[in-house]
Amino acid sequence: MPTPRERFVEALTFLKGLQDQGIVGIHTEDIPNVKYRQLLVRNGFIREVTKGWYIATDPNAKDGETSSWYSSYSEFIVGFLQRKYGGDWCLLADQSLLLHAGNQTVPQQFLPVQFKD
Length: 117
Hints:
By secondary structure, this protein is an alpha+beta fold. It has one domain. The protein contains four helices and five strands. The strands form two sheets. A three-stranded antiparallel beta sheet has the order 1-3-2, with helices on both faces. The chain starts with a helix and ends with a strand. The model has no long low-confidence stretch (mean pLDDT about 90).
């Protein structure tokens, strides 16, 4: 039976594996081991953004720190929408143009468009 320290190392190794795969928006299904998820949340390595969705965070960050959110916003949104809609979504034209022009500012409101059959 692994010690608490060994379980924590396993959880961190698992998180590193997700990051190595380029996963930024972490869904609960991405961490099937509930104990890993609980350890990572409790120790500040991941933070819940919305129900069932997490991002990696700096464990030394203070409450209310937004750096992790702003640095992972675009990748998080893409992962979230891909899981929810598959490939049946796109950005509104104005948001798409801003991105193509190099504007990486996080919008106050994000409105994707879902394609309908």
